[in-house]
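Q: A small favour: would you put together sequence and structure tokens for a protein?
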Amino acid sequence: MRVLTKIILIVFVFEVVLFLIASGIPQNNPSLVSAFNSTENQVLNQSYFGKVLMIFGNNVRVAFLDFIPAVGMVILAVSIYSTGAVLSAFSSSLNVPGILSALGLMTLPHSWLELPSYAVAASSGLYIVIRPREWVRGLLTLIIVPIELFLAALVESGEFYVSNPYILWLYSIPAFVFLYFLYEFLQKRADRYIKVKTPVTQQQNVIQIQQPTYADYITRYNQSWNTASYYETQGNLAEAMRYYWEAIFYLITAVGNKLGMPTLTKEDQDNVIKSVAYKVGNPQLYDIYNEAFKIRIENRLNDFQIFKEYLSQLTRYLNSI
């Protein structure tokens, strides 16, 4: 899971918990109730698309404030707590516990489109602070926020016109799927951009560290083989087996380096052996390699001589490349 995704999930959970806590605190504040009623009347007096634009405009303004690096999380906390407090005050005026109103609101489809968008916005800004060199990921992720809020506004406005607002989940579920794939697309674009922008000198240094020359690997192969021989003469077959296999690893890596093939994974090493088997005309070489690998993994010291014979055959063919 990406770091940004983890941050978004953590912030979203924080957001929901804070909203429920704020709505659960009883509020007896007529001014908050009056402000709520005034806003609600303004929305009700609009047409459907008027409602969409009004809700979207207000929410996207809050989201962009949440995005501000460093202070966005504070703004998010204040806005979410204020929303919960207003809901609590309005519910109290109707003699309904605020927490029940909040839980009821959380069952409506628009809530699960709107609330995550604030978490995405705040997390994107926070990510830029945490990883400033990857600022482009934060900006690209922000693209999803106005789209998500517009979809949320469409759903929320529709809830005023249907007798059963839960039917709009049928619309919301495809919206969630679309937003998920859009998020993944934006993250992959960010991955490519960040990779391309990595300084060339830094890439070269990494390559030099991670990919020594053919001669370096051959030297390591010889050192490990000699160490294994020493442990074998001392009767320490466990250590001998370990160093013999380490020697084979270095030899395979050296040959892979020579052939221009990667050797980072077990699959890569398998491919090197297959290539060598093809070149030397011995298709059984890959089977020999796998049998030796099984003996090593299972630490079958009783089969040490068979193991060593397999490795001797491998080294003979690998050294011929």
Q: What stands out?
A: The chain has 15 helices and no strands. Residues 151 and 197 are 33 Å apart (CA to CA).
